[in-house]
Amino acid sequence: MSFATINSRALLGVEAVEVKVETHLSNGLPSFAIVGLPEKAVKESKERVRSAIINSGLEFPDRRITVNLAPADMPKHGGRYDFAIALSILSASGQLRSEPLQNSEILGELALDGSMRRVHGAIPALIAAQAAKRKIYLPAANANDLILVGYEQGRCVESLLQYVDHLVNTTALRAVGDLLSRSTVAPKPPPRIPILIQGQAVAKRAVEVAAAGGHNLLMIGPPGSGKTLLANSLIGLLPQMSNGEALEVAAINSVANLTLEATAWRNRPIRTPHHSATSVALVGGGSKPSPGEISLAHRGVLFLDELTEFKAGVLDALREPLESGEITLSRANYRLKFPAKFQLLAAMNPCPCGYAGDVRHECRCPPAKIARYLGKLSGPLLDRLDLFIEVPGLSPSELLAQKPDSVDFDAARARIENCRKLQFQRSGKLNSELDTSELEQYCLLGSGLRKVLARAMEKLGMSARATHRVMKMARTIADLQGNHKIRENDLLEAIGYRKCQLNRSLLR
User: Fold this and answer.
1) Three-state DSSP class for residue 75
2) What predicted TM-score, i.e. pTM, was given to this entire model?
3) Are residues 268 and 372 in the same domain?
4) If you write DSSP's letter for every residue of 132-190 in order, what string do you get?
5) Handedness of CA 328, 331, 335, 338 (dihedral sign)
6) CATH number, domain containing residue 374
7) What is the average pLDDT value for the chain, to the nearest integer?
Protein backbone atom coordinates (compact mmCIF):
# COMPACT_ATOMS: atom_id res chain seq x y z
CA MET A 1 0.00 0.00 0.00
CA SER A 2 1.38 3.43 -0.97
CA PHE A 3 -1.18 5.54 0.91
CA ALA A 4 -1.96 5.91 4.62
CA THR A 5 -3.96 8.21 6.89
CA ILE A 6 -3.29 8.89 10.59
CA ASN A 7 -5.48 10.92 12.97
CA SER A 8 -3.90 13.73 14.96
CA ARG A 9 -4.93 17.00 16.65
CA ALA A 10 -4.11 20.68 16.15
CA LEU A 11 -4.64 23.47 18.66
CA LEU A 12 -7.01 26.37 17.99
CA GLY A 13 -7.27 28.29 21.21
CA VAL A 14 -8.23 25.67 23.79
CA GLU A 15 -9.87 23.46 21.19
CA ALA A 16 -8.13 20.39 19.75
CA VAL A 17 -9.20 20.24 16.10
CA GLU A 18 -8.88 16.95 14.22
CA VAL A 19 -6.11 16.80 11.62
CA LYS A 20 -5.73 14.02 9.05
CA VAL A 21 -2.10 13.18 8.29
CA GLU A 22 -2.24 11.78 4.73
CA THR A 23 0.88 10.25 3.19
CA HIS A 24 1.36 9.09 -0.39
CA LEU A 25 4.44 7.32 -1.76
CA SER A 26 5.04 7.47 -5.51
CA ASN A 27 7.80 6.63 -7.97
CA GLY A 28 10.29 9.27 -9.03
CA LEU A 29 13.29 11.01 -7.64
CA PRO A 30 13.45 10.71 -3.81
CA SER A 31 11.86 13.72 -2.14
CA PHE A 32 9.93 14.63 0.98
CA ALA A 33 7.29 17.35 0.92
CA ILE A 34 4.81 18.47 3.61
CA VAL A 35 1.78 20.50 2.51
CA GLY A 36 -1.27 21.88 4.34
CA LEU A 37 -0.13 25.30 5.64
CA PRO A 38 2.80 24.03 7.76
CA GLU A 39 4.84 26.66 9.55
CA LYS A 40 8.61 26.38 9.90
CA ALA A 41 8.69 23.93 12.83
CA VAL A 42 6.35 21.60 10.94
CA LYS A 43 8.45 21.79 7.77
CA GLU A 44 11.53 20.90 9.80
CA SER A 45 9.82 17.71 10.92
CA LYS A 46 11.07 16.15 7.64
CA GLU A 47 14.58 15.90 9.06
CA ARG A 48 13.43 14.77 12.50
CA VAL A 49 11.20 12.06 11.05
CA ARG A 50 13.86 10.81 8.63
CA SER A 51 16.52 10.52 11.34
CA ALA A 52 14.10 8.98 13.86
CA ILE A 53 13.03 6.24 11.44
CA ILE A 54 16.60 5.39 10.44
CA ASN A 55 17.97 5.47 14.01
CA SER A 56 15.11 3.21 15.14
CA GLY A 57 16.40 0.51 12.79
CA LEU A 58 13.50 0.93 10.37
CA GLU A 59 13.59 1.61 6.64
CA PHE A 60 13.06 5.11 5.31
CA PRO A 61 11.51 4.69 1.84
CA ASP A 62 13.68 5.85 -1.05
CA ARG A 63 10.69 7.27 -2.93
CA ARG A 64 8.77 10.47 -3.55
CA ILE A 65 6.93 11.21 -0.26
CA THR A 66 4.05 13.67 -0.03
CA VAL A 67 2.46 14.41 3.35
CA ASN A 68 -0.75 16.43 3.53
CA LEU A 69 -2.03 17.89 6.81
CA ALA A 70 -5.76 18.30 6.33
CA PRO A 71 -7.69 20.55 6.48
CA ALA A 72 -5.34 22.43 4.21
CA ASP A 73 -6.64 25.93 5.08
CA MET A 74 -5.79 25.72 8.81
CA PRO A 75 -2.27 26.74 9.90
CA LYS A 76 -0.24 23.96 11.58
CA HIS A 77 2.28 24.77 14.31
CA GLY A 78 4.95 22.92 16.27
CA GLY A 79 6.41 19.44 16.29
CA ARG A 80 3.25 17.68 17.49
CA TYR A 81 2.77 15.94 14.10
CA ASP A 82 6.19 14.20 13.98
CA PHE A 83 4.97 10.93 15.45
CA ALA A 84 1.91 10.78 13.19
CA ILE A 85 3.96 11.59 10.07
CA ALA A 86 6.49 8.86 10.88
CA LEU A 87 3.77 6.25 11.41
CA SER A 88 1.97 7.26 8.22
CA ILE A 89 5.21 6.82 6.22
CA LEU A 90 5.83 3.40 7.80
CA SER A 91 2.26 2.38 7.10
CA ALA A 92 2.28 3.64 3.50
CA SER A 93 5.56 1.78 2.85
CA GLY A 94 4.08 -1.48 4.15
CA GLN A 95 6.19 -1.74 7.31
CA LEU A 96 3.14 -1.39 9.53
CA ARG A 97 -0.44 -2.56 9.18
CA SER A 98 -2.80 0.39 8.84
CA GLU A 99 -5.89 -1.26 10.42
CA PRO A 100 -4.81 -0.82 14.08
CA LEU A 101 -4.24 2.89 13.43
CA GLN A 102 -7.67 3.69 12.07
CA ASN A 103 -9.40 4.28 15.40
CA SER A 104 -6.45 5.92 17.12
CA GLU A 105 -5.04 9.42 17.48
CA ILE A 106 -1.31 10.10 17.45
CA LEU A 107 0.47 13.03 19.07
CA GLY A 108 4.14 13.60 19.79
CA GLU A 109 7.42 15.21 18.83
CA LEU A 110 10.34 12.98 17.80
CA ALA A 111 13.98 13.31 18.76
CA LEU A 112 16.59 12.34 16.19
CA ASP A 113 17.17 9.01 17.94
CA GLY A 114 13.47 8.13 17.77
CA SER A 115 12.62 8.92 21.39
CA MET A 116 9.52 10.97 22.23
CA ARG A 117 9.45 14.52 23.52
CA ARG A 118 6.66 16.26 25.39
CA VAL A 119 4.12 18.31 23.47
CA HIS A 120 2.11 21.17 24.93
CA GLY A 121 -1.65 21.30 24.61
CA ALA A 122 -2.08 17.57 25.25
CA ILE A 123 -5.02 17.94 27.65
CA PRO A 124 -7.42 19.43 25.04
CA ALA A 125 -6.40 16.60 22.69
CA LEU A 126 -7.10 14.00 25.41
CA ILE A 127 -10.52 15.50 26.08
CA ALA A 128 -11.33 15.56 22.35
CA ALA A 129 -10.16 11.96 21.86
CA GLN A 130 -12.30 10.90 24.81
CA ALA A 131 -15.33 12.57 23.24
CA ALA A 132 -14.58 10.84 19.91
CA LYS A 133 -14.12 7.47 21.72
CA ARG A 134 -10.70 6.87 20.20
CA LYS A 135 -7.46 5.63 21.65
CA ILE A 136 -4.77 8.27 21.89
CA TYR A 137 -1.01 7.76 22.07
CA LEU A 138 1.14 10.39 23.78
CA PRO A 139 4.80 10.81 24.74
CA ALA A 140 5.69 9.39 28.15
CA ALA A 141 6.60 12.95 29.18
CA ASN A 142 2.86 13.77 28.99
CA ALA A 143 1.99 11.09 31.55
CA ASN A 144 0.90 13.74 34.07
CA ASP A 145 -1.67 15.05 31.56
CA LEU A 146 -3.01 11.54 31.09
CA ILE A 147 -3.33 11.09 34.85
CA LEU A 148 -5.20 14.38 35.27
CA VAL A 149 -7.75 13.60 32.56
CA GLY A 150 -7.95 9.95 33.60
CA TYR A 151 -8.76 8.64 30.12
CA GLU A 152 -8.38 4.87 30.22
CA GLN A 153 -7.92 4.66 26.44
CA GLY A 154 -4.82 6.84 26.56
CA ARG A 155 -1.37 5.28 26.29
CA CYS A 156 2.14 6.58 26.91
CA VAL A 157 4.92 5.94 24.38
CA GLU A 158 8.64 6.37 25.07
CA SER A 159 9.96 5.94 21.51
CA LEU A 160 8.95 5.28 17.92
CA LEU A 161 10.48 1.81 18.09
CA GLN A 162 8.47 0.96 21.21
CA TYR A 163 5.21 1.82 19.45
CA VAL A 164 6.18 -0.19 16.35
CA ASP A 165 6.93 -3.13 18.65
CA HIS A 166 3.53 -2.62 20.27
CA LEU A 167 1.77 -2.88 16.89
CA VAL A 168 3.83 -5.74 15.54
CA ASN A 169 4.30 -7.86 18.66
CA THR A 170 1.34 -6.52 20.72
CA THR A 171 3.58 -5.52 23.63
CA ALA A 172 1.78 -3.51 26.28
CA LEU A 173 2.06 0.24 26.68
CA ARG A 174 1.54 2.16 29.89
CA ALA A 175 -2.07 3.20 30.56
CA VAL A 176 -3.44 5.40 33.34
CA GLY A 177 -3.58 2.47 35.74
CA ASP A 178 0.06 1.62 35.06
CA LEU A 179 1.22 5.14 35.83
CA LEU A 180 1.19 6.86 39.20
CA SER A 181 -1.73 5.79 41.32
CA ARG A 182 -4.41 8.41 41.79
CA SER A 183 -3.91 8.18 45.54
CA THR A 184 -0.45 9.68 45.10
CA VAL A 185 -1.78 12.66 43.15
CA ALA A 186 -4.87 13.34 45.23
CA PRO A 187 -5.62 17.08 45.22
CA LYS A 188 -4.39 18.91 48.29
CA PRO A 189 -6.36 21.85 49.70
CA PRO A 190 -4.87 25.32 49.34
CA PRO A 191 -2.87 26.63 52.29
CA ARG A 192 -4.92 27.93 55.19
CA ILE A 193 -4.61 31.71 55.27
CA PRO A 194 -5.91 33.19 58.55
CA ILE A 195 -7.69 36.50 58.40
CA LEU A 196 -5.69 38.65 60.81
CA ILE A 197 -6.09 42.40 60.45
CA GLN A 198 -6.69 45.36 62.69
CA GLY A 199 -10.26 46.61 62.48
CA GLN A 200 -11.61 46.96 58.90
CA ALA A 201 -14.84 45.16 59.76
CA VAL A 202 -16.64 46.52 56.69
CA ALA A 203 -13.82 45.48 54.38
CA LYS A 204 -13.69 41.96 55.83
CA ARG A 205 -17.43 41.59 55.38
CA ALA A 206 -17.09 42.76 51.76
CA VAL A 207 -14.36 40.18 51.15
CA GLU A 208 -16.68 37.41 52.35
CA VAL A 209 -19.54 38.66 50.13
CA ALA A 210 -17.22 38.88 47.12
CA ALA A 211 -15.88 35.35 47.71
CA ALA A 212 -19.37 33.91 48.19
CA GLY A 213 -20.85 35.24 44.94
CA GLY A 214 -17.77 35.64 42.74
CA HIS A 215 -18.21 39.43 42.65
CA ASN A 216 -15.53 41.87 41.50
CA LEU A 217 -13.98 43.94 44.29
CA LEU A 218 -12.03 47.21 44.29
CA MET A 219 -10.25 48.30 47.48
CA ILE A 220 -9.16 51.91 47.90
CA GLY A 221 -6.88 53.00 50.70
CA PRO A 222 -3.49 54.41 51.70
CA PRO A 223 -0.33 52.28 51.85
CA GLY A 224 -0.24 49.89 54.80
CA SER A 225 -3.98 49.91 55.44
CA GLY A 226 -4.32 46.15 54.83
CA LYS A 227 -5.42 45.89 51.18
CA THR A 228 -2.95 43.16 50.24
CA LEU A 229 -3.76 41.20 53.40
CA LEU A 230 -7.46 41.41 52.59
CA ALA A 231 -6.75 40.19 49.06
CA ASN A 232 -4.82 37.20 50.41
CA SER A 233 -7.70 36.48 52.75
CA LEU A 234 -10.17 36.36 49.86
CA ILE A 235 -7.94 34.01 47.92
CA GLY A 236 -7.71 31.69 50.92
CA LEU A 237 -11.49 31.64 51.37
CA LEU A 238 -12.29 30.38 47.88
CA PRO A 239 -13.40 26.72 47.72
CA GLN A 240 -11.68 24.21 45.47
CA MET A 241 -12.82 23.75 41.89
CA SER A 242 -15.04 20.93 40.70
CA ASN A 243 -13.55 18.29 38.41
CA GLY A 244 -15.12 19.97 35.37
CA GLU A 245 -13.72 23.40 36.29
CA ALA A 246 -10.32 21.86 37.05
CA LEU A 247 -10.20 20.28 33.58
CA GLU A 248 -11.01 23.65 31.98
CA VAL A 249 -8.15 25.28 33.86
CA ALA A 250 -5.81 22.37 33.14
CA ALA A 251 -6.57 22.66 29.41
CA ILE A 252 -5.67 26.38 29.42
CA ASN A 253 -2.42 25.70 31.28
CA SER A 254 -1.61 22.93 28.81
CA VAL A 255 -2.12 25.27 25.85
CA ALA A 256 0.06 27.90 27.55
CA ASN A 257 2.75 25.23 28.07
CA LEU A 258 2.65 25.66 31.84
CA THR A 259 3.32 22.77 34.16
CA LEU A 260 0.37 21.92 36.37
CA GLU A 261 1.08 20.01 39.56
CA ALA A 262 -1.25 17.06 39.93
CA THR A 263 -1.59 17.63 43.68
CA ALA A 264 -2.76 21.23 43.21
CA TRP A 265 -4.85 20.94 40.09
CA ARG A 266 -8.15 21.68 41.87
CA ASN A 267 -6.85 24.80 43.60
CA ARG A 268 -8.19 27.95 41.97
CA PRO A 269 -5.63 29.86 39.88
CA ILE A 270 -4.38 33.18 41.19
CA ARG A 271 -2.75 35.56 38.73
CA THR A 272 -1.01 38.74 39.85
CA PRO A 273 0.46 40.52 36.80
CA HIS A 274 2.78 43.48 37.31
CA HIS A 275 1.41 46.92 36.44
CA SER A 276 3.85 47.12 33.51
CA ALA A 277 1.98 44.29 31.72
CA THR A 278 0.86 44.98 28.15
CA SER A 279 -2.58 44.37 26.67
CA VAL A 280 -1.29 41.23 24.91
CA ALA A 281 0.11 39.89 28.18
CA LEU A 282 -3.20 40.53 29.90
CA VAL A 283 -5.78 39.37 27.33
CA GLY A 284 -3.62 37.07 25.17
CA GLY A 285 -2.47 37.16 21.57
CA GLY A 286 0.89 37.26 19.80
CA SER A 287 2.02 35.88 16.45
CA LYS A 288 1.08 32.43 17.73
CA PRO A 289 -1.92 33.40 19.90
CA SER A 290 -1.63 32.13 23.44
CA PRO A 291 -3.80 32.73 26.51
CA GLY A 292 -3.17 35.86 28.55
CA GLU A 293 -3.41 36.49 32.28
CA ILE A 294 -7.21 36.75 32.24
CA SER A 295 -7.53 33.28 30.70
CA LEU A 296 -4.91 31.82 33.04
CA ALA A 297 -7.09 33.22 35.85
CA HIS A 298 -10.16 31.35 34.50
CA ARG A 299 -12.29 30.04 37.40
CA GLY A 300 -9.97 31.87 39.77
CA VAL A 301 -8.83 35.37 40.71
CA LEU A 302 -7.06 38.11 38.77
CA PHE A 303 -5.46 40.42 41.35
CA LEU A 304 -4.40 43.82 40.01
CA ASP A 305 -2.45 45.62 42.69
CA GLU A 306 -1.76 49.33 42.17
CA LEU A 307 -4.63 49.45 39.67
CA THR A 308 -4.07 53.04 38.60
CA GLU A 309 -0.45 52.27 37.63
CA PHE A 310 -1.67 50.10 34.74
CA LYS A 311 -2.01 51.84 31.39
CA ALA A 312 -5.56 53.00 30.65
CA GLY A 313 -5.70 51.02 27.39
CA VAL A 314 -4.63 47.85 29.20
CA LEU A 315 -7.39 48.23 31.78
CA ASP A 316 -10.04 48.98 29.16
CA ALA A 317 -9.16 45.70 27.46
CA LEU A 318 -10.78 44.00 30.46
CA ARG A 319 -14.21 45.44 29.75
CA GLU A 320 -15.51 42.83 27.32
CA PRO A 321 -14.08 39.75 29.10
CA LEU A 322 -15.58 40.93 32.39
CA GLU A 323 -18.99 40.99 30.72
CA SER A 324 -18.83 37.94 28.45
CA GLY A 325 -16.47 35.61 30.31
CA GLU A 326 -14.33 34.95 27.22
CA ILE A 327 -11.87 36.67 24.91
CA THR A 328 -11.94 36.40 21.11
CA LEU A 329 -8.71 36.88 19.15
CA SER A 330 -9.20 37.47 15.43
CA ARG A 331 -6.57 36.67 12.81
CA ALA A 332 -6.65 36.78 9.02
CA ASN A 333 -7.36 33.06 8.62
CA TYR A 334 -9.11 32.15 11.85
CA ARG A 335 -10.64 33.29 15.16
CA LEU A 336 -9.68 31.91 18.54
CA LYS A 337 -11.72 31.95 21.74
CA PHE A 338 -10.17 31.63 25.17
CA PRO A 339 -12.33 31.28 28.29
CA ALA A 340 -11.95 34.11 30.81
CA LYS A 341 -14.45 33.70 33.65
CA PHE A 342 -12.37 35.29 36.37
CA GLN A 343 -13.04 37.25 39.52
CA LEU A 344 -11.37 40.66 39.43
CA LEU A 345 -9.76 41.78 42.67
CA ALA A 346 -8.09 45.18 42.55
CA ALA A 347 -6.40 47.57 44.96
CA MET A 348 -5.35 51.18 44.55
CA ASN A 349 -4.26 54.27 46.44
CA PRO A 350 -6.64 57.22 46.65
CA CYS A 351 -4.14 59.62 45.06
CA PRO A 352 -0.61 59.70 43.58
CA CYS A 353 1.07 60.19 46.97
CA GLY A 354 -1.28 57.62 48.48
CA TYR A 355 -2.45 59.55 51.53
CA ALA A 356 -5.67 61.32 50.58
CA GLY A 357 -8.00 61.02 53.55
CA ASP A 358 -5.36 59.34 55.73
CA VAL A 359 -5.45 60.51 59.37
CA ARG A 360 -1.72 60.00 59.87
CA HIS A 361 -0.31 61.65 56.74
CA GLU A 362 -1.06 64.84 54.90
CA CYS A 363 -1.88 64.52 51.21
CA ARG A 364 0.42 66.62 48.98
CA CYS A 365 -1.60 66.20 45.78
CA PRO A 366 -3.59 69.10 44.30
CA PRO A 367 -7.17 68.28 43.21
CA ALA A 368 -6.29 68.44 39.50
CA LYS A 369 -3.52 65.86 39.95
CA ILE A 370 -5.86 63.53 41.85
CA ALA A 371 -8.45 63.90 39.10
CA ARG A 372 -5.89 62.92 36.42
CA TYR A 373 -4.76 59.99 38.57
CA LEU A 374 -8.26 58.61 39.04
CA GLY A 375 -9.13 59.41 35.42
CA LYS A 376 -7.08 56.41 34.34
CA LEU A 377 -10.07 54.31 35.39
CA SER A 378 -12.79 54.66 32.78
CA GLY A 379 -16.46 54.75 33.68
CA PRO A 380 -17.32 51.61 31.64
CA LEU A 381 -14.65 49.64 33.52
CA LEU A 382 -15.81 50.81 36.94
CA ASP A 383 -19.38 50.06 35.92
CA ARG A 384 -18.40 46.38 35.63
CA LEU A 385 -17.14 46.20 39.21
CA ASP A 386 -19.44 45.24 42.07
CA LEU A 387 -18.00 46.29 45.39
CA PHE A 388 -16.09 49.50 46.12
CA ILE A 389 -14.49 49.43 49.56
CA GLU A 390 -12.54 52.16 51.29
CA VAL A 391 -9.83 50.70 53.50
CA PRO A 392 -8.79 53.63 55.71
CA GLY A 393 -5.52 53.79 57.57
CA LEU A 394 -5.82 53.38 61.32
CA SER A 395 -4.60 55.97 63.80
CA PRO A 396 -1.74 55.09 66.18
CA SER A 397 -4.17 54.83 69.08
CA GLU A 398 -6.38 52.43 67.13
CA LEU A 399 -3.42 50.33 66.11
CA LEU A 400 -2.13 50.08 69.68
CA ALA A 401 -5.48 49.69 71.39
CA GLN A 402 -6.80 46.86 69.29
CA LYS A 403 -5.65 43.31 69.03
CA PRO A 404 -5.71 41.68 65.61
CA ASP A 405 -9.18 40.35 64.91
CA SER A 406 -8.99 36.67 64.15
CA VAL A 407 -11.92 35.62 62.04
CA ASP A 408 -12.75 31.94 62.25
CA PHE A 409 -11.32 30.85 58.90
CA ASP A 410 -13.05 27.49 58.81
CA ALA A 411 -16.42 28.99 59.70
CA ALA A 412 -16.10 31.70 57.03
CA ARG A 413 -15.07 29.16 54.43
CA ALA A 414 -17.98 26.88 55.37
CA ARG A 415 -20.43 29.78 54.96
CA ILE A 416 -18.99 30.57 51.53
CA GLU A 417 -19.08 26.93 50.40
CA ASN A 418 -22.69 26.56 51.55
CA CYS A 419 -23.62 29.81 49.83
CA ARG A 420 -22.03 28.69 46.55
CA LYS A 421 -23.68 25.28 46.78
CA LEU A 422 -27.07 27.00 47.15
CA GLN A 423 -26.40 29.16 44.08
CA PHE A 424 -25.50 26.19 41.89
CA GLN A 425 -28.52 24.24 43.10
CA ARG A 426 -30.80 27.17 42.25
CA SER A 427 -29.42 28.43 38.92
CA GLY A 428 -26.40 26.26 38.04
CA LYS A 429 -24.05 29.25 38.32
CA LEU A 430 -22.76 31.90 40.69
CA ASN A 431 -24.91 34.95 41.35
CA SER A 432 -22.34 37.18 39.64
CA GLU A 433 -22.85 35.19 36.41
CA LEU A 434 -26.64 35.60 36.23
CA ASP A 435 -27.79 37.22 32.99
CA THR A 436 -30.50 39.86 32.63
CA SER A 437 -33.25 37.34 31.88
CA GLU A 438 -32.53 35.48 35.14
CA LEU A 439 -32.69 38.52 37.42
CA GLU A 440 -36.48 38.55 37.67
CA GLN A 441 -36.47 34.85 38.46
CA TYR A 442 -33.72 34.71 41.10
CA CYS A 443 -33.36 38.33 42.29
CA LEU A 444 -37.03 39.24 42.65
CA LEU A 445 -37.71 42.48 44.52
CA GLY A 446 -41.03 43.52 46.03
CA SER A 447 -42.61 46.89 45.30
CA GLY A 448 -41.13 48.42 48.45
CA LEU A 449 -37.61 47.27 47.64
CA ARG A 450 -37.96 48.48 44.06
CA LYS A 451 -38.67 51.97 45.40
CA VAL A 452 -35.58 51.77 47.60
CA LEU A 453 -33.48 50.70 44.62
CA ALA A 454 -34.97 53.44 42.43
CA ARG A 455 -33.99 56.10 44.97
CA ALA A 456 -30.47 54.69 45.12
CA MET A 457 -30.23 54.69 41.31
CA GLU A 458 -31.18 58.36 41.21
CA LYS A 459 -28.98 59.44 44.11
CA LEU A 460 -25.87 57.49 43.03
CA GLY A 461 -26.42 57.90 39.29
CA MET A 462 -26.23 54.14 38.72
CA SER A 463 -26.55 52.74 35.23
CA ALA A 464 -28.70 49.74 34.34
CA ARG A 465 -25.63 47.51 34.49
CA ALA A 466 -24.67 48.81 37.95
CA THR A 467 -28.27 48.32 39.12
CA HIS A 468 -28.25 44.72 37.99
CA ARG A 469 -24.98 44.15 39.83
CA VAL A 470 -26.51 45.55 43.01
CA MET A 471 -29.39 43.08 42.66
CA LYS A 472 -26.94 40.18 42.23
CA MET A 473 -25.00 41.28 45.32
CA ALA A 474 -28.25 41.51 47.30
CA ARG A 475 -29.04 37.95 46.27
CA THR A 476 -25.62 36.79 47.52
CA ILE A 477 -26.03 38.63 50.83
CA ALA A 478 -29.45 37.05 51.28
CA ASP A 479 -27.96 33.61 50.58
CA LEU A 480 -25.24 34.20 53.18
CA GLN A 481 -27.89 35.17 55.71
CA GLY A 482 -30.00 32.13 54.82
CA ASN A 483 -32.87 34.29 53.47
CA HIS A 484 -35.04 32.73 50.79
CA LYS A 485 -36.14 36.20 49.62
CA ILE A 486 -34.11 39.38 49.36
CA ARG A 487 -34.87 41.62 52.34
CA GLU A 488 -34.42 45.33 52.79
CA ASN A 489 -31.26 44.96 54.86
CA ASP A 490 -29.76 42.73 52.14
CA LEU A 491 -30.49 45.33 49.47
CA LEU A 492 -29.25 48.26 51.58
CA GLU A 493 -25.97 46.48 52.28
CA ALA A 494 -25.50 45.82 48.54
CA ILE A 495 -26.19 49.49 47.75
CA GLY A 496 -23.73 50.53 50.43
CA TYR A 497 -20.91 48.73 48.62
CA ARG A 498 -21.24 51.17 45.72
CA LYS A 499 -21.32 54.31 47.89
CA CYS A 500 -17.63 54.95 47.86
CA GLN A 501 -17.06 58.42 49.25
CA LEU A 502 -13.88 59.02 47.27
CA ASN A 503 -14.78 60.90 44.11
CA ARG A 504 -18.24 59.38 43.98
CA SER A 505 -18.98 60.86 40.60
CA LEU A 506 -16.17 58.81 39.09
CA LEU A 507 -17.73 55.58 40.28
CA ARG A 508 -21.15 56.17 38.71
Assistant:
1) coil
2) 0.89
3) yes
4) HT-EEEEEGGGHHHHHHHT-TTEEEESBHHHHHHHHHH----B-GGGSS-GGGGPPPPP
5) negative
6) 3.40.50.300
7) 88
